[in-house]
């Protein structure tokens, strides 16, 4: 398994395209050229190139689910700075969920790769959306499967097939945690510290219970209602994506899922900042998971003979839109209007007073005041026969904060 959080620089899938209309490939030659880099961005070492021909057809499915999207949202809560499309949603969840639960979410994520390992775990239990019509909620069925998963299998999938190597390793480690230093787990320690890995090995059942308790409480107090309001969005998106896939060249469609997926010389290249290993097993299935919480990342998961790719969806009302942001910025795009903002920050002035100070007509001042009012940055007060204006400092400060967060600076 390759966690979406685990960094890979180049994953190349060479795809012969001749004769293909609605099937992805007749064979795939997978070339994984990965370079290990630590989380501080230092240089790394080259990983071996693995080549494997895959006979037969590859099944492509589109998937989404409440449990899957819930865990993706926990990634945003743990690491919100990268997810500008979720700014408003993040502010909403932080203000509506108890701080104790938020701390538990962030703490667990800080120990276990920002919930990315759990995303891979849930991925294995998410069924194709082709089976669904209307509203559905798979949360409790997924939780039941997680709870009943054999201890060894849970630990193996959670920590990652490609990070642990042979599954015999997990049996040995669970029986003899003191053997941890006998294994080369450099890749694992890029995402889970040695201390946290050892704690997990020694307390698998406790960690599983902690994880299930957190996501169940979060589901009950917040995400269940969110899913009821948004499930239709995913259903419509899945219908649209499947129709586009059926009408497109399969390889080109896969390449269109993310800007870091590039089709070039019969090769599909996945450019990542992540280091991980892959086993040269046959890839028989490509799952495309729809999520509104994974942008801007290229998220992937490889487990056994399956590749999962995330389609980053932009859901309305989860964040300040480009149009709204541009409308706010427009307030400062005119030098006269900027002068008005400066004058009205700490005082109340009439139209006539502003016109006199700026040496322009009251009619021009009125136009600028109208724009400021439409942006909700101006309030007016009537005093006797005069109307005085003043800038809403809080609104200006909030707009500047949102702009800074939006641009990630």
Describe this protein with a few key phrases.
alpha+beta; Arc Repressor Mutant, subunit A; five-stranded antiparallel β-sheet; 16 helices; four-stranded mixed β-sheet; disordered N terminus; 409 residues
Describe this structure in words.
GO terms for molecular function: DNA binding; DNA-binding transcription factor activity. Pfam families: DUF5937, HTH_5. It comes from Emergencia timonensis. The structure is a single chain. The chain folds into two domains: 62-312, no CATH class; 322-407, Winged helix-like DNA-binding domain superfamily/Winged helix DNA-binding domain (Arc Repressor Mutant, subunit A). The strands form three sheets. The chain has a five-stranded antiparallel beta sheet. The chain has 409 residues and is an alpha+beta fold. It contains 16 helices and twelve strands. The protein has helices spanning 66-78, 87-96, 99-111, 116-123, 139-148, 151-159, 161-164, 168-175, 194-202, 204-247, 250-255, 322-330, 335-344, 351-358, 362-374, 393-407, and strands at residues 10-14, 27-33, 50-55, 59-63, 261-264, 267-271, 285-291, 300-303, 306-312, 349-350, 378-383, 386-391. Helix 1 crosses helix 3 (99-111) and helix 4 (116-123) packs across helix 6 (151-159).
């Amino acid at each position: 398994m390759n966690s979406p959080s685990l960094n890979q620089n180049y994953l190349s899938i060479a795809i012969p395209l001749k004769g293909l209309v609605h099937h992805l490939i007749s064979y795939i030659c997978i070339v994984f050229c990965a370079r290990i880099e630590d989380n501080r961005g230092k240089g790394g070492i080259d990983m071996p190139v693995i080549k494997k021909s895959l006979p037969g057809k590859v099944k492509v499915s589109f998937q989404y689910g409440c449990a899957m999207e819930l865990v993706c949202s926990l990634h945003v809560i743990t690491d919100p700075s990268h997810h500008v499309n979720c700014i408003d949603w993040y502010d909403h969840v932080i203000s509506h969920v108890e701080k104790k639960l938020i701390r538990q979410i962030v703490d667990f994520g800080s120990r276990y790769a920002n919930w990315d390992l759990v995303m891979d775990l849930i991925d294995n239990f998410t069924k194709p959306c082709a089976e669904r019509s209307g509203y559905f909620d798979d949360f409790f069925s997924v939780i039941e499967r997680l709870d009943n998963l054999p201890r060894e299998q849970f630990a193996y999938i959670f920590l990652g097939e490609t990070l642990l190597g042979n599954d015999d390793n997990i049996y040995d480690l669970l029986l003899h945690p003191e053997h941890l230093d006998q294994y080369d787990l450099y890749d694992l320690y890029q995402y889970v510290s040695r201390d946290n890995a050892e704690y997990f090995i020694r307390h698998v059942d406790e960690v599983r219970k902690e994880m299930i308790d957190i996501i169940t409480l979060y589901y009950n107090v917040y995400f269940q209602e969110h899913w009821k309001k948004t499930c239709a969005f995913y259903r419509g998106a899945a219908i649209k994506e499947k129709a586009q896939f059926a009408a497109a060249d399969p390889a080109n469609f896969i390449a269109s899922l993310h800007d870091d997926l590039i089709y070039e010389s019969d090769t599909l290249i996945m450019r990542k900042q992540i280091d991980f290993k892959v086993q040269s097993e046959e890839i028989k299935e490509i799952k495309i998971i729809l999520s509104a919480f994974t942008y801007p990342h290229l998220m992937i998961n490889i487990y056994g003979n399956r590749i999962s790719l995330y389609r980053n969806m932009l859901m309305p009302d989860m964040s300040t839109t480009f149009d709204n942001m541009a409308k706010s910025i427009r307030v400062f795009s005119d030098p006269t209007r900027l002068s008005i903002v400066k004058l009205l920050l700490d005082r109340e002035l009439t139209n006539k007073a502003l016109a006199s100070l700026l040496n322009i007509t009251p009619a021009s001042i009125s136009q600028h005041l109208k724009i400021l009012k439409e942006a909700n940055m101006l309030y007016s007060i009537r005093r006797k026969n005069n109307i005085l204006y003043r800038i809403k400092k809080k609104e200006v400060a909030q707009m500047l904060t949102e702009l800074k967060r939006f641009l990630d600076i």
